[in-house]
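Q: What would this complex look like in 3D?
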Amino acid sequence: MATETTAPEATTNDDAEAKLTEAIAAATEPEASIPGAQRQLVIINWSGEFDKVLPTLIMASVAAASGYKAQVFLTFWGLLPFVKDSRRITGENTMQKMLSFMQRPGISHMKMSKMNFMGMGPWMIGKLSEQYNVASPQELLEACQLMGVEFMPCQMTMDMFGFKREDMIDGLGEPVGAATVLELMTEEHTGSLFI
Amino acid sequence: MSAIHTTVDAKGLSCPMPIVKTAQAVKNVPAGELIEVLATDPGSVKDFAAWTRSTGNAIVEQTEDEGVYRFVIKRA
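A: Here is my prediction, written as structure tokens for the whole assembly.
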């Protein structure tokens, strides 16, 4: 009797197995799409130097590319690269204007935290980046914005440097404060970095 | 399902661009379709494994030929 039923039994087993595999795949596959389980990356972008803004943009773009919600808080020196490149002198009072004269804002004018050597360092890194096809900060910023990374300027920094909204690049979010960032940083499934 | 829907040529690009370009391309690919990625960045082997774990997409084929890594990814 067992031998007689072998053939039909095998097909039903196969069917059941296929259904089970399907169900397992459905249950395990789109983990990132479970509501409430979305992973987040929060970066406090503080330094504003080339060698620190670059990893900020890399991590943020990859996070967005991996389905994370990626948010970057732009504070203190870290806000300067997000001023339009074309703005030479910013601010309202003399001291604010002097600061922008001493450290030109804009993503194309970032310095190195080490080996700046009056612009020699950035120039050499620029050459090497070209040679090794490393994405520029401008390219990475564009990728971030395309993929929906949220950039939040720090209100206090905006005020202190005398930046107006029209001084800043397009696509930035509303200026916020520390309490907003703290809440984001301490949410579930969230990693946060201070760069 | 068996034919490649989209090819991402990321040869010569450094981290993170192979991932970023693939993620952008994937948006225009219907679920269940295949994306082929060509990369020369040796780090992309581990990176694509991690990226697929994060996004739910699946690597269905992976080969290396003279320094060119080829990944075939099934869109979740």
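A: To summarize the key features: Residues 8 and 24 of chain B are 10 Å apart (CA to CA). The helical segments of chain B are 17-26, 44-55.
Q: Very helpful, thank you.
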